[in-house]
Design goal:
3% strand, mainly alpha, 51% helix, 2 strands
Length: 140
């Protein structure tokens, strides 16, 4: 996302979300997965939620297929919980509470629709707690 040449978050476009998803999938496929673990902070499901918000029905349906087909390559999916706190301005993530809630609701809807199993992470902003939980779960 950081290198996306198009607007993101509330201002995103279909081209932006296609670019992000296609680049994410390409980068994940470049990794030699033999005896290695890849941990990413976004799944294609997340990106699809942003695309779904701005796409027409046909484009949404096509990318839904791509996103969820690719998500089947993940051994585990961990999901953060949206906390009821003000997002910190970091120049990348949105601070718009209504928008954040909308995207989280879209993600939850499609996780349920596709019966995607995921492991909820603890409700905390402490990154170290999340990393510790993940490492414990994958036995590292």
């Amino acid at each position: 996302v950081r290198h996306c040449p198009f607007p993101i978050n509330e201002e995103t476009t279909i081209d932006a979300q296609k670019w992000i998803m296609n680049n994410q999938i390409a980068k994940e496929l470049e990794v030699d997965h033999s005896n290695k673990i890849l941990i990413t902070d976004r799944a294609t499901i997340d990106n699809f939620a942003y695309l779904h918000r701005v796409a027409n029905e046909e484009t949404s349906r096509n990318y839904e297929q791509i996103a969820f087909d690719h998500s089947s390559t993940y051994d585990l999916i961990f999901k953060t919980q949206k906390l009821n706190i003000v997002a910190v301005e970091d120049g990348l993530r949105t601070t718009d509470e209504e928008f954040r809630t909308l995207i989280d609701n879209i993600i939850n809807h499609f996780l349920k629709k596709h019966q995607v199993k995921f492991i909820p992470l603890q409700a905390t902003t402490n990154y170290d707690v999340h990393v510790g939980d993940i490492l414990e779960r994958i036995n590292v």
